[in-house]
């Protein structure tokens, strides 16, 4: 998602306890002007993605390079501490249970106003036609911002189907230029089945809810939310018996009896309760359950209310009984499960974008990250190296040499995950529209990717003049402050 600078000062070094800077041995050398590492030019294979050989596309190849690939980076208590810090210190992550039972107009407008101000720039529809000012005004009016009551009682729900989060309460797709229909400027994100939400407002046409979810506040079609009591919503999935989706996606078994639970997509990191006491020979939606897991999922009834019903998840699904251990090997295995998936701005195309990609990889290990790059890059809950425009190319290259598997590299509007080094070059996996680099003849080459891809970092260009390395704003390491 777009990088929206928040004005936080850049800090050099991985932050340590009490906000002090934890010394990196490397940073002591930077002031002395450590030179750039010499490299031979990277080859350009027939597929035209510079520096990427077949071995680079195999998670096991990167795992074999590690001395201790299965060493716990954080144990269960460490992951819990990391998440507690994230929820406490990062304003982009919402603890829904801590929200009040009623909202003032100012509180609701505080969520609504940043999203729902009428657009002022020129936008185009999917046919290339300019969206007129009256059309934009009507879309903005449906948000009913001026109709927010002085006091609003909080309502609660569970998401019942993978659903878009929108800037405005509309399915109208809009784009910055004619012919570029991949990046819908009204698309914010998506929510997955079982996600709890607090309903804060309803659109003028009654078809949309403005919801606050654990990591985002935006508009969702109300047909994708089952409304229920607070206790039922926050109690869902809290039992000990559960499954975590560890594949890129999993789907429930098709059934003709309960369409809301048929062939339902569950994305990596989704945790669903298991009905462990379900009778072994009792059918679920007309099917014997012995070849599947019997799980519980939310559905929306015709009157909008929430129901929790059994569904079948095939035993062949890539799932685990709990979140995976947080190790370098698992970071690599999980990220490579998305390799080749189509890039989807704001989780469109039933896939994900760059920040969604890294979020879901970490979520499969139970680790919570903010949704967007703008928030991830400045999160005070992570170990951050910040850069500013005055930092030299050589200093930046030297820092890259110290990076570990899973470290997150941020440039304006984008994030990449480090997977290792090969012959002095840093390699990353990221969900990207494409890469730019300079060919052997000195000309700038643009390679369209539109997928989760592996690329080297150092040869890439941010634009025709600037190396990507020189536009790195931050590097985040997913640890609580003070962790090794």
From TrEMBL:
Which regions span the lipid bilayer? none
Q: Does the keyword Protease apply?
A: yes
InterPro entries in alphabetical order? NLP_P60_dom, P60_peptidase_YkfC, Papain-like_cys_pep_sf, SH3b1_dom
Which SUPFAM superfamilies does its entry note? Cysteine proteinases
**Superkingdom classification of source:** Bacteria
Q: Which Pfam families match?
A: NLPC_P60, SH3_6
User: SH3b1 domain spans which residues?
Assistant: 174-221
Q: Which UniProt keywords apply?
A: Hydrolase, Protease, Thiol protease
The NlpC/P60 domain sits at 340-434
Record family assignment: Belongs to the peptidase C40 family.
Full protein name:
NlpC-P60 family protein
């Amino acid at each position: 998602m777009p990088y929206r600078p928040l004005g936080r000062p850049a800090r050099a070094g991985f932050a340590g306890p009490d906000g002090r800077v934890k010394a990196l041995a490397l940073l002591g050398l930077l002031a002395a002007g450590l030179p750039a590492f010499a490299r031979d030019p990277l080859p350009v294979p027939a597929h035209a993605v510079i520096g990427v050989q077949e071995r680079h596309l195999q998670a096991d190849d990167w795992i074999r390079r590690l001395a201790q690939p299965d060493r716990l980076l954080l144990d269960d208590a460490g992951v819990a501490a990391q998440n507690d810090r994230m929820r406490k210190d990062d304003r982009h992550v919402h603890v829904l249970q801590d929200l009040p039972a009623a909202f003032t107009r100012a509180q609701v407008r505080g969520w609504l106003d940043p999203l729902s101000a009428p657009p002022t720039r020129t936008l185009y529809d999917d046919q290339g036609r300019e969206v007129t000012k009256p059309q934009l005004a009507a879309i903005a009016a449906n948000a009913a911002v001026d109709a927010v009551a002085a006091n609003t009682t909080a309502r609660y729900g569970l998401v019942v189907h993978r659903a878009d989060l929108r800037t405005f309460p509309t399915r109208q797709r809009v784009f910055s230029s004619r012919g570029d229909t991949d990046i819908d400027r009204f698309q914010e994100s998506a929510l997955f089945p079982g996600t709890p939400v607090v309903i804060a407002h309803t659109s003028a046409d009654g078809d949309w809810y403005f919801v606050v979810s654990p990591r985002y506040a935006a508009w969702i079609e109300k047909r994708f939310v089952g409304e229920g009591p607070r206790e039922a919503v926050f109690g869902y999935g809290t039992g000990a018996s559960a499954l975590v989706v560890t594949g890129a996606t999993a789907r429930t078994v098709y059934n003709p009896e309960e369409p809301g639970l048929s062939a339902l997509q569950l994305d990596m990191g989704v945790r669903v309760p298991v009905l462990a006491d379900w009778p072994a020979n009792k059918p679920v939606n007309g099917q014997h359950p012995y070849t599947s897991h019997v799980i519980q999922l939310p559905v929306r009834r015709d009157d909008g209310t929430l129901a929790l019903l059994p569904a079948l998840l095939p035993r062949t699904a890539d799932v685990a009984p709990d979140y995976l251990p947080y190790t370098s090997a698992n970071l690599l295995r999980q990220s490579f499960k998305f390799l080749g998936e189509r890039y989807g701005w704001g989780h469109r195309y039933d896939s994900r974008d760059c920040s969604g990609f890294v979020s879901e990889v970490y979520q499969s290990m139970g680790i919570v990250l903010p949704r967007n790059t703008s928030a991830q890059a400045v999160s005070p809950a992570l170990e951050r190296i910040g850069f500013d425009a005055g930092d030299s190319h050589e200093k930046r290259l030297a820092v890259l040499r110290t990076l570990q598997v899973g470290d997150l590299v941020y440039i304006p509007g984008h994030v990449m995950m480090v997977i290792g080094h090969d012959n002095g070059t840093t390699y990353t996996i990221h969900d990207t529209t494409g890469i730019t680099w300079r060919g052997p003849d000195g000309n700038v080459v643009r390679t369209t990717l539109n997928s989760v891809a592996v690329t080297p970092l150092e040869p890439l260009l941010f634009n025709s003049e600037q190396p990507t390395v020189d536009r790195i704003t931050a590097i985040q390491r997913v640890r609580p402050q003070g962790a090794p």
